[in-house]
């Protein structure tokens, strides 16, 4: 560090100690009791300390900038000195007679050389990640030559061929052929699941470009250069990807927007035609950028940058000066034709590749669909008593999500984990939880208040019981570690007594009841003060609006120094942003599904039917009858939109002599637990349920899931469907929609779901059903109508058009045998915005 920076540092220290002393003297007495602004002496003191800190930071910042500027100028000077032959050596010192400054092109060349030299590590940004290539990692090789890529050479050669280093000349076509691109594309397409970090060589190239981007920003070279840089990077990226995971690609793609100067909106010059063709290419080609592999927690924005409209520049315009402007380029016809050919070519290859991967998949299907990894539990660093319990439960190999999560969690890192339904996420978080308890217990002597070390939150009571049961299986040989549930529907006092008589280290709770304990039981928060790990199962649901407030309050009461794990089969990007509420900034994102991969299981056949609501009950009956006649050990779950609709369907099918059970929130907890346990153990049973069973419930060997009516969102559809086809088994899912609900198919259009025609409906069954319906209590039907209105009114797309909503509600009303729509309380109608809508009756 130079003398000026030392001086600055000393000065800032002096200043802060002076302020500190001043405050101290004043606060020791003698000074006024109140200070300007009505502050007391402590507030006054804190204010000044803060100001001193800010000042110090500012000085340090300035110092840092000075230091960086100095280093840069040293490099420039050195490079300028070494580039030229002695006779004509360029003088970097303006005072020398033969001084002439570096041209921008020369500067870049010099930087490129400097960067790629051994020992250039000091130029890499710390945030760019590790510099050294681990010996076991294959270096990225050129796809065409199979030689390691010399990036500066490639870059300079390509740029320089036409016009010896004329960076602005874009008249020459790029020098990699259509074939090369196609090969790269097919390579890219054919990769699927490898998830190792991208090669460090490749990373270094990226870092180099990253650095150049920054430097260029300062040097005001800008746009055209970067356009070309990026095209080269694409080459490496494609190639690098060949043995890499598409998710790495996506992150790169996402981050590429930062350096993407290729957005064309207003025409300026023909020279830019190549850039234009690149933009077109971007529609079809994976786009790669710079620095994209460095940050995991940024990867949540991948969709934001998808598509042309999002291809925006993110580098500051200040940095790029006049070069930072949007340009549209006219495209020579020839160029467009080439692109056309290219796109056709790519399309053919894409088809071939997908055909090939389909045939390969059929062969490897068993392997691909297996949820198990190659790793065994006894190979990883967990207690042998846990391994013993796992073996006793029949778990020998880890599932993929367990393998991916365990090591990271054992290191104490926060993690956000996405894995398909039924792939063993529960054990994936329970195993690190047990290790945490073991570690915490061994470190602590006897304490006055027994601490809760692990808190597991989940959305439903049944799920909490299921998790606690699984935890007990894994704790079979661990004496002295206890698990308890805190869920609604049980008596608060009973919970309290249990907690006092039988202290535990692991709590599984639903948010509402836990908050009750925190707020109403003095002393409960004290137990939580020793918390080491917080787990959110079905995290996206827990962070949803319905639970958010409770979650915020709970998190506020927990110690900050803890490890947090969030898991779900679905993690929409909004949730990933909100997850920061719980997770540390530097958390890991573990995605065993993979970007762009199916979130549902390939072995689960999905179909949907569209029919008026009036026919739904008949159709469900028909489907059930068919399934029961075809599948010996059938086990079916029927999901309804509301609890009251569940109750109505249950009553109807029970009266029609079907073997059915019901679970929904209107039932007592005792009843729900009994039915849930019965369904878990049984075969040849139909469970009619609301969404309380949609998430996390592990009912083995469910053969069919029927979803009647609109699922509240895509995620809910996936979770409901996920009750079948668990542990890599086969299953079937049918979604039944009314014609005006069919818009929902847009939300799940990426899933392999097929439209089926309506089955033939037996008129005798219709009569039988109408007959059974008349026997159902009118109050059940009325409640079903109210609940129906409430549910659909809350669906944004439907609730907007109140008149249509009421019409549909009245048709539903007819279909369940009500003569006229039941009246609503005025207040309710007002709240729902239905008061003056024709067809709504208001209670007098
Ligand atoms: N290592 C393993 N070996 C064999 N079976 C396992 C293993 N881990 C979990 N299982 C079984 O896999 C099934 C599904 O597990 P789990 O309920 O944890 O899935 P999940 O991923 O949490 O599902 P959901 O997303 O629906 O909550 C359970 O029956 C469980 O016993």
TrEMBL record:
Residues 623-773 form the Helicase C-terminal domain. The keyword Nucleotide-binding applies. Residues 375-403 form the DEAD-box RNA helicase Q domain. A motif (Q motif) lies at residues 375-403. CDD domains: SF2_C_DEAD (cd18787). Belongs to the DEAD box helicase family. PANTHER family: RNA HELICASE. This is ATP-dependent RNA helicase. It comes from Ilex paraguariensis.
